[in-house]
Amino acid sequence: MNARIFALVAVLELLASSRADASSTANPINIRNCAVNFPRSGVDFVDPWGMRYYQPSTTGNVRVTFLVTGSKPAIAIDFGLIVSNILIAEARDTGNFSPGANIEHELGLAGDHMPSQSAKIECVALVVQWNDGTYYKSPRVLSVTRLNAK
Fold first, then answer.
1. Burial level of 122, CB count in 10 A (0-12/13-18/19+)?
2. What is the pLDDT along the chain (150 residues), one digit of tens a residue?
């Protein structure tokens, strides 16, 4: 009876460990470029012919160029923008991202607090979901402070 319970526990532990990749491994997403487009206020203006126009405000977004260096395709990647070890905004990209493919996407940002344009912004792949259902979670998830953390 004890051998059966031990075997069952061993199988359950094996299944649980196969659901998530080790966080100590190198990040499988190589971010080659990360450019933040800062939000702009709406502007009223008059064109050279005297016509009045309103240019609406824009929200912040980020253009990320990355390469999947892992061995399997990714289907979702959660990116974080970090300033002084504080997570200020997040963006999710979904699709079928093959290993070795250079990918460039523009993503909307979830987060109200954009830093000044002179701030040093770090772009990090926080979580990667692979097409086989497993996940990679960056160690940075545990080390950064979330803005407005409760």
1. middle
2. 444 333 333 333 433 333 444 444 789 999 999 988 876 667 777 767 777 877 666 667 889 999 999 899 999 999 998 988 988 888 899 999 999 999 999 888 765 566 666 678 899 999 999 999 999 999 998 888 887 655
Cα–Cα dist 130/128, whole Å:
6
Question: 103 and 74 in contact (C-beta within 8 Å)?
Answer: no
Q: Hey, what are 61's tokens?
A: 């977004």
CA proximity to 136, closest of 99, 81, 110, 106: 99
Q: In whole angstroms, give the CA distance from residue 81 to residue 67.
A: 18
Residues 6+ apart with CB under 8 A from 148: 113
Domain definitions of the chain by residue range: 22-146
